[in-house]
Amino acid sequence: MKRLRIGALIVALLLSFGLAACGSDNGADKATSQPTSAATTTASSSTPSSGTPAAATPTPVERGGPKDIILATTTSTQDTGLLDTLLPVFEEDIGYNVKVIAVGTGQALAMGERGDADVLLVHAPGSEKKLVDADVGLDRRLVMHNDFILLGPESDPAAVKGTTKAVDALTAIFNKGAAFISRGDDSGTDKLEKALWKKANLDPKGKSWYEETGQGMGASLQVANQKDAYIMSDRGTFLAAKSLSLAIALEGDPALLNVYSVMSVSPEKFSLVNGPGGKAFADFMVSDKAQSIIKEFGVDKYGQALFIADAGKTYESIGLATPFG
Description:
The chain is an alpha/beta fold. Helices cover 41% and strands 18% of the residues. The protein is built from 12 helices and 10 strands. It has helices at 2-33, 75-79, 82-94, 105-114, 125-133, 166-176, 188-199, 217-226, 235-240, 275-285, 288-296, 299-302, and strands at residues 68-74, 97-103, 119-122, 137-152, 180-182, 210-212, 230-234, 247-250, 257-265, 308-309. Strands 1, 2, 3, 4, 5, 6, 7, 8, 9 and 10 form a 10-stranded mixed beta sheet that branches.
């Protein structure tokens, strides 16, 4: 009887080790068959009981063949419709298929830092420096710019209209406790807004009138519109948005310059990165053909271009103190 119990115990232990080994092997297979996570073009979101949408949840993106590239970019290039115009031209002329991941610039840069994208089109000069210095972001080039604008309800409860500096406008909003919608998604727009609050020596976090959506620019504009709130936006997405009652409360401050750059991700740092494809897209964005499209984009519909084409210019010539802000 004793021998039977010992034998059964040995069999149980062997089965236990075998199952553990199988689980470990399966986990290793999953880790090597997919790159680290990247957000899809239509990232999911949820709405907590507070009514504030949660940040988009990244989901894995499978890499394709040698003619497939992953572009990580800010939501404004998608929300304005610019990519819908540029990508068919690139794909037809150059022969690559582009998977677009439109997220906040902070997330796009993080994708590049992990090797989850082949090329980046972003608009946060100060944050881009980290990837360039680490030789992860290659051949960073100026593509275009427009500007950020402060929007608000027509009634202008904080009496922002008439101010000329963004810091003064935010101070007026803070002192009034007027409703303000922030993207809160580490995007280029969000980074600028947070920097301006810091410059004003003010912290709106936790205030009842300050709400972070965790969403892209288009979705955040809709929330601000519904709540008659102030919001910082890039001009292009505002012009492309439909059925908004928000008005421009402040524009023209040099601190609101919005600069877009392109850079490919180093294939030497990450073996899965499509180096030729990323470079091909970056080269296309500064080509005469792409710059001509950018120069005219929006003129027929809005009476003005949504972006100013900048290829060949220096960062300093368009208003930045240095290439990184």
